[in-house]
Amino acid sequence: MPRISDPSNFMHSSKPTIVVHDLVKTFSLKHTQSFKESFVSMFSKEDRTTDFRALNGVSFEVGEGEALAVLGHNGSGKSTTLKLISGVQQPDSGWVRTRGRIGGLLEVGAGFHPDLTGNDNIYLNAAILGMSKDETDARYDEIVEFSGISEEFLDSEVKRYSSGMKSRLGFSVAVHTEVDVLLVDEVLSVGDAAFKAKCNDKILEMREQGKTMFVVSHSIGTVRKLCQRGIVLNQGELIFDGPIDEAVEYVRPPKVDKPRAPRAASAQKPEPRPKPEAPVNETRFTIAPEFMYLFLSKETQLGQPVDDPVEIAENGGGILQRFERGTATRSHALSITQFTRPGVFLDAYIAAGGPQGKWGFIVGRVEGAGSIDETVRIRFQNGIASRTGGSESPVEFSPAKLGAVTSTSAPTV
Amino acid sequence: MTEHPALRDPEYSTPGTSLGLISVFRYHYLLGLLLKKGVVTRYYGSVLGWAWSYIRPLAQFFMYYVVIGILLGVSRGVEYFPIYLFSGIIVINLFSETFRATTDAVLGNKALIRKVYLPRELFPVAAAGGAIIHFLPQAVVLFIVCLFNGWHFTWMQPLAFVLSMIIVVLFALGLGLFFGALNVLYRDSKNFVDLILMFATWSSPVLYTFEKVRDRAPDWLYHLYMANPVTTAVELSHSTFWAPIASDAARPGGLMMNSAIGIGLAIVALLIGQLVFRKKEGQFAQNL
């Protein structure tokens, strides 16, 4: 059973500010964008949508004045949860109820119009965030001072601003809105170091004023400073709810020298991560965004992931993930995403150390397959693996510089 | 399992719910700012600026006047044909402008819609407001021309003018909500709008008089034609500007009746538009 801590430990008031009950949200990845395509797909057998379950029965409550951090890997459902709480999206089932005025640091500068002046944009953005004219007037000086933008710039169009100035102004308006609940989504990286520090102070100040906070962040340092409780999402399910120090253990970056590090790390956790019996054909592991295309593509037929993605530091850095019908790698240095099917090549590759080893990342697909005498080759970052003759013959690796290899340009996805 | 207390407690609200068009009134301050934004940025960076709001209809009027009025000779038998033409064109312009702007409003504000929850009807309504602001200069130009041609005041004229505007704007807003919501899912609904607008110009007595339809079409078709809210609005505009000048102008019968029908149809369009909009609204953020 997922560990759900006793909520009374954390609540400052009898009534929670945010109640989230059994949220389910499925995205249908639509491949059609026009009447014509939809019409054609009605008659073809091809299914033009792929369902992706972003949230699967998530429930929690946030007490008044509490600061809750939402943790999880990319694609675990954090942002979707935030969008459902802010009302931008609606759940497929389950419900959300909130108390008081909700504002967010997620929409920094969303309402800016490049052709309007900074002043006009302050009023427009404040109104979008729910402020009246009087409230904006009252806080105008504070907003301007906090943003650190000079008078002459406030009278000129926002399109003349640097991107740093734009986000400073947006953030400044957002933190000065009158709210009871603040939703924070990865925006603490705004502007230069000095402004960042100012933002963090401002958020801590709001926190001390007793505002309820709902923080989505990858920065362990930030959430530890801001929140006392954390929930952890994985594949759209809530896997932990409790003290922040225990929650962050779930998202600590895995050790890079061991490919199976995420599994190994779970042994050190205060309580082992519950591992539900995975039903067939249901995604249980996070798919790295880099492999989403391969995963969804009809041609590659990779099947479901059989493990979480693993960060690789060697050979220029990248990611490796194992799927039912192949292993995919992504090299950050080469910007190449490629995969290899299970078989003698893959076995030899793993035996040689995988992407960390001397072969490097997968660069090409199988070439020369067909006849029994022909040499079958796969290109890797640091050379070519080849096998001549039948399936009994061994795989040989000959190192080669990639520059020489890519002259025949390996197909990539 | 007992029901969660938050479901009953009136202190709680459900994020992302609104009363649709009714909620727009609560956001009148923001609506005002959005309108201002539209006005300020419309001709941003253009030298002539708002003069374009006058130049475009004048050029359009001139083109129609030369081709339809002089070359094709439709003006024969219609007194003050240019004024007749122009009072119809401005109504069609208002209709096209409102319809197009409201349809585009959701897509045009996608950055906001994806990030902040606001009653989404705000954007089409603000777009309709912008269209009205854009329309008024044209009406002013026409009014001044009419004054020089012996226009005289009766109480029916402002009434007919306002009625005509209400019918057109409500009708176009209803259609705009409908097609704007569908446009998020299927981008081709914009092309349907273009198609409808192309018909709108010709299926109303703008370039010809209603008598041409009355004399040629069967009775049922004529009544159908006259029941079209855009036709009604065009005829109301003729009553406002052209009829007081043209002494023996033939006026269609039952204009009051048709106005009532027009308002009714506009409200029906608005209700249907609002219903479809609300039904699709939940999917906006994820599909934009």
SSE blueprint:
The complex is a heterodimer of chains A (413) and B (288).
Chain A: E1 3-4, E2 16-30, H1 35-43, E3 49-63, E4 67-71, H2 78-86, E5 93-99, E6 102-104, H3 118-128, H4 133-147, H5 151-154, H6 163-175, E7 181-185, H7 193-208, E8 212-216, H8 220-226, E9 229-234, E10 237-243, H9 244-247, H10 261-266, H11 292-296, E11 310-312, E12 318-323, E13 326-331, E14 336-340, H12 344-351, E15 375-380, E16 383-388, E17 396-399, H13 402-405
Chain B: E1 12-13, H1 21-26, H2 28-42, H3 52-71, H4 81-108, H5 110-113, H6 122-148, H7 156-185, H8 189-202, H9 210-216, H10 219-227, H11 229-242, H12 255-281, H13 284-287
Helix pairs in contact in B: 2-6, 3-4, 4-6, 4-7, 4-8, 4-11, 6-7, 7-8, 7-11, 7-12, 11-12
Kindly describe this structure.
The complex is a heterodimer of chains A (413) and B (288). By secondary structure, chain A is of the alpha/beta class. In chain A, 27% of the residues lie in helices and 26% in strands. Chain A contains 13 helices and 17 strands. Chain A has a seven-stranded mixed beta sheet with strand order 1-10-9-4-8-7-6. In chain A, α3 (118-128) packs across α4, α3 (118-128) packs across α6 and α4 crosses α6 (163-175). The longest helix of chain A is centred in the middle third of the chain and has 16 residues, at 193-208. Mean pLDDT of chain A is 78; it is low at 1-13, 257-283 and 404-413. With 288 residues, chain B is mostly helical. Helices cover 71% and strands 1% of the residues of chain B. Chain B contains 13 helices and one strand, in the order βααααααααααααα. β5 (93-99) of chain A pairs antiparallel with β1 (12-13) of chain B, so a sheet runs across the interface.
